[in-house]
Amino acid sequence: MQSLKETIHSAWQTLKKGIALFGIRKEERWLVLALFVLILALNALSVAVYFDRFAPLADNYHKLFVNTFHVSGYDPLTYEVVSKWATAYNIHRHPLLPFFMYVPYLINQALIWLTGVNCVQFVVGAIIVLSSVYAFLFLYRTLREVVELSRGDATLLALLGWSFGYILVASVVPDHFIISTFLLTLTLYIAGKMMKKGRNMSIGETILLFVFTAGVSLNNGIKTFIANFFTRQKRFFRPANLIFAIILPAILIWLFARWEYRIYEYPKWKARREMRINMTKKQREKVYLMVKDTTSLTDDKEIRKQARAIWHKQRQEKLRKRNRKPMYSHQGQPIKKTEFWNWTDITTPRTATIVENLFGESIILHQDNLLGDTLRGRPVIVKYRWWVNYIAETLLVILLMGGIWFGRRKLFMWLCLSWFAYDMLLHLVLGFGINEIYIMSPHWLFVFPLCIGYLIKSLEGRHLAVARCTIGALFAYLIIYNVTLIVEYFVM
């Protein structure tokens, strides 16, 4: 009986800690409220722009949302899943995300039954707004409690992070990226607190965080494993941790993704493949009949040979026309044309990508081709009209480099940089999604304010005042500039 009481007490204490983790403290209320109002206003604008097209019930939600909603390269697949549940995401990259959206789908179904209209924009909008607010909150807390900045400096740097272009954009679009940002900032905050206390990330905590981070986006689960390593260090290699916290969860989620693909996606792929084969047969037969009716040849083998030559010529012309479309022409050459290597890119220019997209578009939106999609016509590389944007970009990089230098002896900063380095390995080295690297930036942009925090912590006197003024000026410029362009995009 005593053991049962202790178990119940322990579970209750854990629940209380979980509730407290998401509670908004007194010093955070006005700051969180200000951000909430901004993000809510931007989401309200997005809802208003698309409401007349998305509110009516439809038979083909995929076609409706994909053909209508265009903001950069983001996909409105969450609208589809919450409107009519399906595993619409890429299963190998987002294995649990459709299942996480099942409860929102049920809520939306209840609202449809009550109102007669599709309330998906409101249901998904609530998820996006809350994810953005809590991602901001955990960034602020990490600056405050792990980096140990003053309240004013933590506020300034957290606001700087939420003035970045694609943090703001991700806080408006119905994609998974701001949800990933929330889960990653939560993981980073928890790991940072553990490192401050000298406590290991337990097997159970690692599994729980991995299920959510990897479930939403598989590559982010690696960051949970990295956090486990930084909190445990040498103890990371203990057999129990390696087997039950790292290897087993990784194998199980991959097996689940394969099962999910086999059950939900493979039948659709097989049906599409059979349809293409049948269509090809009909096209080839059509060409054969045309040749047969117009040629003077009487040998059937010769007729079929001539028909094959004509069909191959037509097919090559269709492929050339297809490859001229942005969806194909803006994709670089992969390392190998196989299932996973096909996502890589070795030809997109790296230097221009770093200047214009990695530290450019991710943080400061381009006026030309504003929030355009590279798969629909936006060039991969776009230059700024104003030189001041390059100055702002340079200042931010200088602040970041300064933070890395002054924080080089802080283990937590190396945890942050290891996450960033992992993303750069995927995107810059392997080239995964490099042609639109900026849409991936919510996975790492929150690292920049954290690194700059170590610069602020190390400076004194005049140098500290200059750094604060520079950060304040950057924040003021970016928030006005980026919000203005986002609003302009939706209302134009």
Note the topology:
Elements: H1 2-22, H2 29-54, H3 61-68, H4 77-83, H5 97-100, H6 102-115, H7 120-146, H8 151-161, H9 165-170, H10 177-197, H11 203-216, H12 221-232, H13 239-294, H14 300-323, H15 326-329, H16 350-361, H17 387-406, H18 411-429, H19 447-458, H20 461-491
Descriptive notes:
- The chain is mainly alpha-helical.
- It has three domains: 29-237, no CATH class; 253-323; 343-491, no CATH class.
- The chain is 71% helix and 0% strand.
- The chain has helices at 2-22, 29-54, 61-68, 77-83, 97-100, 102-115, 120-146, 151-161, 165-170, 177-197, 203-216, 221-232, 239-294, 300-323, 326-329, 350-361, 387-406, 411-429, 447-458, 461-491.
- Helix 8 (151-161) packs antiparallel against helix 19 and helix 11 (203-216) runs antiparallel to helix 12.
- The longest helix is centred in the middle third of the chain and has 56 residues, at 239-294.
- The protein is globular.
Number of separate helices: 20
Number of strands: 0
Question: Helix content range of the residues, please?
Answer: over 70%
SS-derived structural category: mainly alpha
Quick rundown:
71% of the residues lie in helices and 0% in strands.
Descriptive key words:
492 residues, mainly alpha, 3 domains, 71% helix, 0% strand
